[in-house]
Amino acid sequence: MGSYINLVFLLATFSAVHSYIEYDAWINVELHHALDSDDPDIFKYRANITIPSLNSGLSNVVQEDLSNEDVEKIKSLAVKNGFYRMKAIVEYPNGVKRTFSTANKACSILSAQLNDELWIAIDGSGFVNAITLSTSGVDINECSLFDFSLSTRQYNTEVLIKHTELAPVADTASFIQKIEREREARERGEVKDNRGFFAKYWIYIVPVVILLFVSGAANPDQQK
Ligand SMILES: *[C@@H]1O[C@H](CO)[C@@H](O)[C@H](O)[C@H]1NC(C)=O
């Protein structure tokens, strides 16, 4: 009984950790942002994020404060209803780098007072699928109606790791085909159960034998 409970516990633990990656790893993400609407290809260093363990999801974020000049640039992007664009360069332990990009309305960044969330989606092998910058600020349709005053020069970024769930795929079609083939074969009389008596009925015999043993062991006096 004890080992049965252990097995159930083991299976439950396995299914609970299954949505995480098997071999944990660290990644480093460097953020660069484009603030200049006149020079949209210039990306400026913004932050360095270290994630020591993808499974634990804890991160260490080191960010640059915005200069007054940067704030003016974001405001002018917002006035034009433009996008605040960001490049995220992911570095893996083997030194390989991959670049992702994400964008958000400049006025959303301002209305959220530089509070933002960086979503990092990873697949089952620990590789990044996508990086998305979102804000939980007020959803503004018309940026020009907004007052763009900022009370801070400091980003406050929450880093969220999203593990991709790999759901088991049921192969229903081939299972139904198999059942159909077996049924047709039975109807044609092709399937003959030509196993021996014990091979056919062991599932009935074995419990009876065990039961006899158990009751014999429980009442040794009766056999004397
Ligand atoms: C970012 O952090 C990593 C790990 O701490 C470090 O190796 C890297 O040089 C840093 N990059 C920058 C631009 O500061």
TrEMBL record:
Bilayer topology: Single-pass type I membrane protein
Q: Give TM segment ranges.
A: 201-218
What keywords sit in the KW lines? Endoplasmic reticulum, Membrane, Signal, Transmembrane, Transmembrane helix
Signal as UniProt keyword: yes
Report any Pfam family annotated for this entry. Answer: ECM10
Q: Amino-acid biosynthesis: is it a keyword of this entry?
A: no
Q: What is the annotated signal peptide range for this record? A: 1-19
Where does the UniProt annotation locate this protein? Answer: Endoplasmic reticulum membrane
Q: Name one GO cellular component term.
A: EMC complex
**Family, as annotated:** Belongs to the EMC10 family.
Q: What is this protein called?
A: ER membrane protein complex subunit 10
Look up and give the organism this protein is from: Musca domestica (House fly)
